[in-house]
What we know:
Layout: H1 5-28, H2 42-63, H3 78-103, H4 123-146, H5 150-155, H6 157-160, H7 165-170, H8 173-188, H9 191-210, H10 214-230, H11 237-257, H12 267-271, H13 275-287, H14 290-298, H15 308-314, H16 330-338, H17 357-365, H18 369-385, H19 392-406, H20 414-440
Helix pairs in contact: 1-2, 1-3, 2-3, 2-13, 2-19, 3-14, 3-18, 4-8, 4-20, 8-9, 8-10, 9-11, 10-11, 10-19, 11-13, 14-17, 15-20, 17-18, 18-19, 19-20
Amino acid sequence: MEVDHFLVFVRLVFIAFILIIYFSYLKIDNKEIALSSFFNSFMGMVTCAIIITHGLIPILQELDPLLFRLRYRFDYTFSTKAISILYVSIFYISFVSIYLLIRLGRRKLAVSCSKIHPMENSRLIEYLTLYIPAFLSLVFVARTLWGANLAEILLDRISVFRGLGAILLLTNVFIFIAILHFYRFFMFRLSKELYKYFFYVLLMLGVFTIIGSRNSFFIFLLFNLSIYFHLGGRLSFARFFCYCSLALFFFMMVGFYRVRLDSTDHVSDAISFDIFSSVLTSLISVFGTDEILLFLIHTSFNDFQFGNTFVAAITNFVPRIFWAEKPLGAGPLITNLINPGGYSLDGSNVSSYTTGLIAESFINFGFIGAFVVPFFLAFICLLIENIRVRNYYFLMLKVYLCIMFGFAVFYSEFLGMFARALYVVLPLFFCLFSYKLLYKNGS
C-alpha cells in the first residue's frame, strides 16, 4: 500500500495551523512562547493532546498504513480524512474562542510557589491517606501475581486481574507520593527526598508494567513534567528528548507484557519481539483515537447519543441493577458498531475501543459537536484554573485535573477517564480535608 505524501503534508499544515492559533492565544494572554507553555496550563495540555492524537499519530499511520487498526476493513478516502481534519480544527477554534469569551473580564489565578505553605505537620496525614492505600493496593496485586505466572499474564492479562479494577487504579496513588518527594527535593534540595523519588519511580515502572498500564506511567511522566514547569523549572530540548525517550522505553516494556499469545507454549515468541514495532504499536494503541473519528465519518454514522455517553460518566456510580437502562459509555457503543457483540454487559466481552473526546463529541452530536462540546470543555477549564493553590496538595490536585481533563480526555473514553480521575484523586481530597482541619486547629 503506497504512502499518501500529500496527506502527510496536509497533516503537517494542520499541526502548523494549531500552533499558530495557540501562539496567537499566548500573545493575547501576554504569555511567553516556550516549551513549558504546553505543560503548565489547561490550554497548553489541550493543544499538545490534539497535536499528538490528531496530528502526529495520523502521520505515522499515513507513513505506515499497516498501523491503521481498522484498515483491514475500511479504506478511508481523502475526503473522509479532509473532513476529519476540518472537524478537529473547528473543535479547537471553538474551544479557544469560547474560553476567551467566557474568561473575558475575569482575572486569572496565577500559581506562586513562594506562597505555598510548607506544611510541616503533614507527614502523618500523608501516611494515612496516601501511603497506606497505595501499599495496600500493592499487596493485593502481589497476592494475585503469586498465583499466576508470566505465561498466564501474557495469555490473558484481563482475566488474571479480573475484579481488581479498583485496586489497580489505587496503585496510581504512587504518582502523588513520587511527586511529593520530587517537590520537596526541588524546593528544599534534600538529597534523601531525591532517593525516595527515584525509588517510587522504579516501583511504579515495575508495577505499571506488570499490570499493563501504559496510561498510568505516561500520566506520571506528564504530571512530573508539568509540576517541574509550575515550580519554575527550565528544560532544554535535549533533556526533553531524553525525557520522551524514557516514555518510549516504558511503552516498549509494556508492549512486551501486553503481547497476546495463542497458548502458554509460545512465551519465547513474545521475548523475541521487534522493539521498534512494539513502540509504534503501543503508541497507536494509546493515542490512535483519530481513526475512530475517521470510521464514524466514513460509515456516515447517524445514531447520535445527544449527550448520553457524558451522562453515563456522571451516573457511573449508580449500579446497573438499580437502573437497567443506564446509558453506556462511548467505548462499548463504538466497539459494538465496529465488531457487533464485541462488548457485552454479562462480562464475557469487556474490552472496548477508546474514542477520545473529539470522536465522542461526534458520536453524541454529529458535526455540531464541534461547537457544543468545546463549550463544556472551556467551562471545565475555568473551574480547574480557579482552584487556589494554597499548599502543594492543591498544586497536585490542580495539575492532575488539568492533565486528565485537558490531555488524557483526548485519547480516552470520557466515562473511563472521568471515573479514573475522581477515584484516584479521592485520597488527595482526604489529605486536603484532614490537613485543613488540623491547620485550622493550629496543629
